Amino acid sequence: MPVLVASDLDRTLIYSSAALALTMPDARAPRLLCVEVHESKPLSYMTETAAQLLTDLGDTAVFVPTTTRTRKQYQRINLPGPPPAYAICANGGHLLVDGVTDEDWHAGVLARLADECAPLEEIREHLMRTADPVWVRKHRVAEDLFAYLVVERELLSEDWVKELAVWAEIRGWTVSLQGRKIYAVPKPLTKSAAVREVARRTGAELTLAAGDSLLDADLLLAADRGWRPGHGELADSEWTAPAISALPERGVLAGERIVREFLKATRGSASGGRHP
Questions:
Q1: Phi and psi at residue 167, in whole multiples of 5°?
Q2: Tens-place pLDDT, residues 226-252
Q3: Backbone angles phi, psi at 241, to 5 degrees
Q4: What is the pTM of this model?
Q5: Helix, strand or coil for residue 140?
Q6: Selection from 39, 5, 35 nearest residue 20 by Cα
C-alpha cells in the first residue's frame, strides 16, 4: 500500500531569501537550488541535498504538495523529482489531478462554505474598513475562496490581529499570520479534507505531513505522523500533538530535515516498520 506524503510548501519545504535563516558562517552555508522564479527573479529555494532527497521521495511515495497558494502561484514552482500526480491548492479549495482542477471536488467545497460560514464579501469588506493603510501594502482575494493582506510586520498592530481573529471566529473563519501576510480563511476550507480524499483515491494506509503555520494544524492532526520546523506560528505557540515531532532546525535546513524524515519514515514503512 502506498505511503502518502502531504507537505506544506512555503517555509516548510521551500524558502524565500528572507526566510532561509542562514545563521552559520558563510563558508559553511549549504548550496541552494532555486525552485521558483517570479517576474524574472529567483524567489524560493531548497538546499541541493533536500532537492535530491525529494527526488528520492517522489520515487517511493505519493508526494502531494499541500499549499495555501493559488493554483497560479503553485504552478510557477518547479520542484525536483517526478511531477506530483496530486496537488492541493488554495488551502484545500482546489484538488489538482495531473495539474488539472477536479471540478467535482471544488463544487463540493463551495457548497460547504455556503452552508457553514459567513460569505467572503463580508470578510473582505471588514478587512478593507478596519486595516490601517499605514501598515497594509496589499489587499488580495485568492481564488474567490479567502482573503489576505500583505503588511509591514514592524508596523502591524498585534491588538488588531487578535481582534480580527475573535471577529472572524464568530463567523466561521480562521485568521493566520505568516511572515508578511495575514490570512482570513473559512474554517471548512482545510488541507486535511483534501488530503483524506487523496488517501481514499490512492489507497494509502500511512499518511505523513509537515507544516509550520496555524493553517497546517489540521493537516498535521489528520496524519499518522507529522513534523513541524523550529520556526513559524506553530513553533512560536509551542503547538504540539501526539505523533507530531517538533524539529529544532529553523529556515532552509528545517526543510532539508523534514524531507529526510519523510524519506526515512517511508522506507521504514516499506520494510515493515510503520513507525521507524
A1: -60, -45
A2: 999 999 999 999 999 999 999 999 999
A3: -160, 165
A4: 0.93
A5: strand
A6: 35
